[in-house]
Design a protein that fits this description.
about 425 residues; alpha+beta; Ubiquitin-like (UB roll); Creatine Kinase, Chain A, domain 2; nine-stranded mixed sheet; six-stranded mixed sheet; 13 helices; about 20% strand; binds glutamic acid; binds magnesium ion
Length: about 425
Amino acid sequence: MTQQAGPFAFIGTNDLVAMTRGRALPLADINFTTGVGWVPADLAVTAMGGVAEGNPFGALGDLRLVPDKSTEVVFAGLRGGLPVHMFIADQVRLDGQPWECCPRTQLKNAVAKLKDLHGLELSVAFEHEFIVTRNDGVPMTGHPMAFDSMREVEPFGSELAKAFASAGIPLENWLPEYGAGQFEYTTPPADPLTAADRAVITKDLARDVAARHDMRASFAPLPHPTGVGNGLHIHFSLRRDGKPASYDSDGLGRMTREFQSAAAGILEHARGLLAITAPSQISFLRLTPHRWSAGGVCVGDQNREALLRICPIPAGSDPEKMFNLEYRAADATANPWLTMAAMIYAMVDGLDRGLTLDGIVEGEVEESGAPMLPATLDEAIDALKGDAIMNSWFAADLMATHIGIRATEKAAVAELDDAAKCALYATLY
Ligand code: GLU
Ligand code: MG
């Protein structure tokens, strides 16, 4: 009797350039304890495909990618092929112990630290902006935020909503954005690991659904130096004993003391954090004033140029539940788990030291006297290297690899002008 080939299980991780990489095997053979083989140096692959020079792993060692059963998402068959069952995995040593360079494990550790030291949990939502183009080259002509833009990309939008539903990922909003063909989707808040897993899966789903309709979904931070940027905005709020712990109507910026300290921790480490949350060779072209991305290292009330924006509370909603901050200086070239882990460690440091905020920016960021963000990725990397507290959060090999990737990528695009760099990244992300 001939055996029927069944669908694949793809067991994947998301690496330091935010690409989902992994291995497939027949779904029937998946093993949730031993997983599949993996190689430490895989973490050092750059966005352009080479391996970062001077990475600490070289040709040595072996790991396992151990799938998390709860993350299963079925990707519909492409071009008549079978569906693929994707599983997010942790990177584990051969003895079954967690690998200290695994970004997903780092996030689990950070979540545990916030809980153990301060009894706090986080509620998190990632908002992704991206640009849809047609493979036949016909340009998108819909208007900013307009109904015609939404209709122009159909059936992409409604198929994406279906894909989210079948993946068990709730879709909150589907927005035509400012740029031609630019869209944003939001998902409701969840615990940090679920939110970061969703950030990985939803981007891959969006690209996949677009490909099925002869379109492309690009999450590159900036398609052209003069174009609109694609942000990744991360909303967060604190919870204690399952209840909201961020809102105090009498507090500075309506924030509880502990939410202020958590925010102050993010501002304290902001310069180095940027090297993790906006790590590509074009990320800092987006992070310039007047793009509504992020300009100043401050907390701003309903201000889209502040690193941390206090989000509005609509009349009629419960302020305790609604109140949250938005970190605006991330983009889709950042690893979601490492981004979230670094933000949490910064918050823990703010809470440990009882840091306080100098104030809340009410008007324009540029006129507020708030320090500006680093102007370049190099400045952010120097800040990361010089921040001893940040370096205590992560394994030295993980930091060395993260920084090494940026140096190799910088060399790879050294001959390109900004427009050519943006064009390259639009093909990569
Ligand atoms: N596209 C802007 C960015 O790059 C954000 C616009 C908005 O606030 O939705 O971050
Ligand atoms: Mg937006």
